[in-house]
């Protein structure tokens, strides 16, 4: 019977890899509350935009605020995707397609759950477009993880490390 190294890892060691992903999920859930509605974020973002762009029209400021909020979807699920990938990979190194696929599916599932939750939050709503943006963030993050793990980063200045790229395990 062939057991991989991950079969013998204790749950506290596995939990240590999941803590960042759980923290990212908690932040995403916080961002889904009524404290982060467009009206609430506008109280912070709009004055900053007005300070940087004092002659901008109200329409431009509104569009920029909207764009920043949508970019936040991409970023938060990108971070979530990276932390989930790290948790799934555990103490192994490298990149495997099944890890990335499972990560992507978990991220999109969490996005759908998050949007479903927003149906019941005052001044929030369910949006398939937001799920698509979240999935885009997760997918882009997995591309970055792949580039990093395979050392194929298009702007790479680090040397190639074949042990890292092949997905070999190391001590936890």
Q: What does the average pLDDT come to?
A: 86
Helix tally equals 6
Multimer state: single chain
Broad shape: globular
Helix percent reads: 55-70%
How far from one another are the termini?
22 Å
Structural domains: how many: 1
Share in β-strands: under 5%
Low-confidence stretches: none
Largest sheet: none
Rg, rounded, reads: 19 Å
Total number of beta strands = 0
Structural class: mainly alpha
Order of helices and strands: HHHHHH
Give an account of the 3D structure.
The protein has one domain (8-165). The chain has helices at residues 11-31, 38-52, 58-89, 97-118, 128-150, 162-165. Helix 1 packs antiparallel against helix 3 (58-89) and helix 3 packs across helix 4 (97-118). The model has no long low-confidence stretch (mean pLDDT 86). The protein is built from 6 helices and no strands. It is globular. The two termini are 22 Å apart. 68% of the residues lie in helices and 0% in strands. With 172 residues, it is mainly α.
């Amino acid at each position: 019977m062939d057991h991989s190294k991950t079969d013998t890892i204790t749950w506290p060691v596995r939990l240590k890899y999941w803590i960042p992903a759980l923290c990212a999920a908690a932040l995403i859930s916080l961002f889904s509350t009524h404290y982060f509605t467009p009206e609430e974020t506008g109280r912070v973002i709009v004055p900053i935009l007005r300070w940087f762009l004092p002659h901008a029209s109200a329409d431009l400021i509104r569009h920029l605020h909207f764009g920043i909020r949508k970019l936040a979807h991409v970023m938060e699920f990108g971070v979530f995707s990276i932390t989930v990938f790290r948790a799934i990979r555990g103490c192994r190194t490298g990149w495997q397609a099944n890890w990335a696929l499972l990560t992507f599916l978990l991220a999109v599932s969490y996005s759908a759950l998050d949007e479903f939750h927003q149906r019941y939050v005052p001044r929030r709503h369910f949006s398939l477009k937001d799920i698509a943006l979240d999935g885009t963030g997760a997918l882009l993050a997995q591309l970055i993880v792949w580039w990093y793990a395979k050392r194929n980063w298009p702007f790479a200045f680090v040397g190639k490390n074949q042990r890292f790229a092949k997905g070999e395990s190391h001590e936890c």
